[in-house]
Specification:
single chain; 54 residues; mainly alpha; 3 helices; 0% strand
């Protein structure tokens, strides 16, 4: 019963995650633009540099 409950819990989490991912992907998109990918997420999203300015 514990294995069955564990598998059921994993299944529910996986299905829920796929639904949430699908909705976000269809509404806004997940990927950055090519330019933002080249510059990196630090600059594109957070507006900070990943390396020091020294």
């Amino acid at each position: 019963m514990q294995v069955l409950g564990t598998l059921l819990g994993i299944s529910v989490a996986l299905i829920g995650a796929l639904i949430v991912y699908g909705v976000i992907h269809s509404l806004t998109g997940i990927r950055l633009s090519e330019e933002d990918e080249f510059n990196g997420a630090d600059l594109a999203i957070h507006k900070i540099s990943a390396t020091s300015e020294d």
